Amino acid sequence: MKIENENIEIKLLLEAMYLKYGYDFKNYSKASIKRRILYRLSRSGLKTISEMQHKILYDKQFFEILIQDFSINVTEMFRDPSFYKSIREKVIPVLKKLPFIKIWHAGCATGEEVYSMAILLKEESLYDKTTIYATDFNEGVIKKAKDGIYPAERLKEYTCNYQKAGGKSSFADYYSAKYDYALINKSLEKNIVFAEHNLVTDWVFGEMNMIMCRNVLIYFNRDLQTRVIHLFRNSLCKDGFLCLGSKESIRFSECSDDFVDFVKKEKIYRKK
Amino acid sequence: MKYEAIVIGVSSGGMITLDKILRHLPSDFALSIIIVQHQHPESDDFLARFLDARCSLTVKQADEKEIIMPGKIYIAPPNYHLLVEEDKTLSLSTNKHVNFARPSIDVLFETAADVFGEKLVGIILTGANEDGSRGLKKIKESGGLTIVQDPDTAEVATMPKAAIASTKVDYILPLENIGPFICSLYALWLKE
Ligand SMILES: C[S@@+](CC[C@H](N)C(=O)[O-])C[C@H]1O[C@@H](n2cnc3c(N)ncnc32)[C@H](O)[C@@H]1O
Fold first, then answer.
1. What is the ipTM metric for this complex?
2. CATH assignment of A81-271?
3. SS3 content of chain A, % helix, strand, coil (to 5)
């Protein structure tokens, strides 16, 4: 009974967020959304999800807090080093043949993934002919991505990832450490365009040679995943690469036949 | 009482412990089993393959949006939380660590309790932290059956002890009895 009502309340809350602010979470995986809502509820002093719905309608700041909760921004530099190693060894040789390169990071969170790619491109002498589009639907994280300032406590882990990913130089070359923070070199930001883009409501994003969208689709239900994969197919040029997170796949979708496995284990696909 | 699914949480010492339990299950066993075993984030699916080779049921690493099937055993992939969805599918998340763990036992247990309610069995096994205590409590509150490995028979007693301290669990069983006990639940289920 309680759970049944809770689920109804959650549906109404998501509908309210959509009608009022245009953010559509109705096709996100429910279990995760529910945990985020209950987490916020427990910290808000409100008693029920229905009360929360009322507050969201009348208090934009509270809505923004909830958006932060919903957009799970957990990320790291060179996450899954073996993935970056495959990019370096298998994808880069193909990209080297192009006159210029366009790469889109969809759901880039606070930018660690984008700078990892920028470093890799620099080391492979491709950076100067590349434009990187880094997008997320969360304005706050885009700003952080632009700033490129990361807590120093994670540098050890990142250095280790960088090395495992086949880094050719010293990771310390790419940032300057200040107190508790590491500031990413500005030269890495030069060819990156940061922008807001919502995968649920916005559409195609130009003709890309490579799209990276890692650990975003897992938060969507199958319908929404299908839409987004469609969107990616339409935003890729022929022979372009699509890179998903290690537990994500396009193989359930109607676009499946439009792609071949390029590095199967790392979920790197290539558009036919 | 008909049970539909079993969730198991286990940490250090898990591989041998799981093997000792799962090997009891007959090939026509019809409950779904979902397991969180704490692992190194860069581990592959060795654990699932190891158990699959030794047990008469299919053991596999859980895929995202996979439908939970009767008689199958799913193991959370390393470095992802594993959640149960309303429509009885599995989903993954890279959300922050919970109790210093990803996958976290609490996350699996709490979401499973929401979906399976009184048709759920929760089992806490050996481990060196306190993950799973909250989740087991929620299973109990939702009317499910709660079982903890007798700490004296656990390789590391911390996790079972923490679970017993936070919930009035239904059964505290020595390791060698857990497999047969699960089989008896299933036999009961067959009779009904
Ligand atoms: C777990 S992070 C993944 C970050 C990075 N790609 C990685 O793999 O480390 C998920 C990101 O997806 C973003 N996101 C969620 N829904 C989105 C949407 N509808 N459109 C664009 N980005 C979205 C979140 O804001 C968050 O930054």
1. 0.90
2. 3.40.50.150
3. 50, 20, 30
